[in-house]
Amino acid sequence: MSEILDIAAALSRLLKAENILLICHKNPDGDTVGSAAALYHALTGLGKTAAVLCADPIPARYGYMDIGLYTGQFTPGYTVAVDVAGIQLFGDAIAAYTKNIDLCIDHHPSNAGYADCMLLDGDAAATAEIVYELLSAAGVDITPTIADCLYTGLSTDTGCFRFSNTTARTHEIAAKLIAAGASLIQLNGILFESKSRSRLAIERLALESLEYSFGGRCATIFLTKEQIAQTGADTTDIEGITSLPRNIEGVQVGITIRQQPAGSYKVSVRTVPEVDAAEICAHLGGGGHRQAAGCELLGSLDNAKSALLTEVEKALCKE
Amino acid sequence: MSEILDIAAALSRLLKAENILLICHKNPDGDTVGSAAALYHALTGLGKTAAVLCADPIPARYGYMDIGLYTGQFTPGYTVAVDVAGIQLFGDAIAAYTKNIDLCIDHHPSNAGYADCMLLDGDAAATAEIVYELLSAAGVDITPTIADCLYTGLSTDTGCFRFSNTTARTHEIAAKLIAAGASLIQLNGILFESKSRSRLAIERLALESLEYSFGGRCATIFLTKEQIAQTGADTTDIEGITSLPRNIEGVQVGITIRQQPAGSYKVSVRTVPEVDAAEICAHLGGGGHRQAAGCELLGSLDNAKSALLTEVEKALCKE
After folding, report:
1. Which member of A168, A200, A249 has the closest CB to residue B207?
2. Which residues pair with B107 in a beta bridge?
């Protein structure tokens, strides 16, 4: 188990450290990249040697940030995991650097404590909130560059202040970052307006396959393996559309059925709070949370749909 | 011209007034409804008689707010226009009440000053920001009910803190409203996740008609009058999709062509900052702003498209 640190103790460790390696999680998102880059700029500004390491390439959309990537320019003397909830999330490509983590800065309540020390705040909407507080405690000048990095983490992890993890503190920190010069207009444009051509192609197929059942209380979209391959959609594109059917006005159960390369059907079920998605999926050999669950079905599409809709009908009758 | 008031002066007028009629603009949005409803709750809490009037029905999605609609229960003694930029926006149905407006509270810099007095702040992202400051100056307790109304105005006018009008102050006020008990999760769900079936139907048609030109630098969508009629899409649904083609990764000019009931083509052009939309449209008899302009074309669709793409090519070559 990790030694639990507060902001002041974590800061004191960082200020004593030299040759600091800041490590992101694999499949990097805006929070792990933005938080690590903010720390990189702050620490180098304090005269430290630091760099950022990630097992996967940084997505092009975050190209506006100077991330200070590690290229072997120093031998790491102190390792900091940033927004990494578990060791399996580092990625094998950087295993040589992740055997012993000195400090973990994270906001995932599920973090099991794999690092020697941990600065964890499960109530923070993003790790960027914790990093902001750390830098403020250090008296670091929040430059426009650092503000851009932290705004990236804060806004991407909250869906631009829309998700249920958003709090008053999230907005307070956003206000401070904007006042410090975050490029709000440019960043919101890149992060929340731009959609890839493959994402639009998969949305088009999803909308074409959209079927309503039970008087509009259930909506289902269906994608074949050939369609998914044609669009060039990646996992993020596909995950992004699973919320589409449930977000239609009047819909209580939204279902996404996607054919897997081997032919089986992967089913995602999203529901309103009154309907139990986990129960629908449990009857079909799957499981999950009350409002987001899944299962995998074999056989013909018609049989799969029919089995699903039978369970949906039972769940809707209970409501 | 209106007498310009500051917060304190506007407050003093309101506190002296009796039987206050709060008037929204027609085609009401979240800011006019939320700001007027917040004032209604605050003024009645101060022992005043007040009610809210609007020429059009309040959209069902705002049904979570108790809006205190005017049903002739008192003779108005003081009229307040809330978020109404010009007299043409009141709507004929309530003309009997809008001949003389005592006070206008607004954030539109274009407001010409039709009211006797005006509390105008063109830097506010929403009229709800101004109302928040007015109620704070009055020492009004921001109840969860008032917080819900003001959060509605603030979040809808900024696209949930995404649009370029969002400022540090917008986030500061959002933080205060959340701390005061605004139902963040419920409201964001209703306002920013739910889409109408007609909106999805028009998005589907738009995506089906999507064409790329000039190596993906231009994207065009096209809707016939029959398609628009079939989907049941209203003006808001259609306006909502004009940003779709421009928001595709790599697209610099996004064009939406919609056939009008009489057969002509209404064209919306949206561009990145480097390309002048107004110039493209000026060559075709239209006009507008640098990044958002429009024109109307007659004749066949092929001719209209060809004329448009010729101008787009010229504009792209300049870049």
Report:
1. A200
2. none
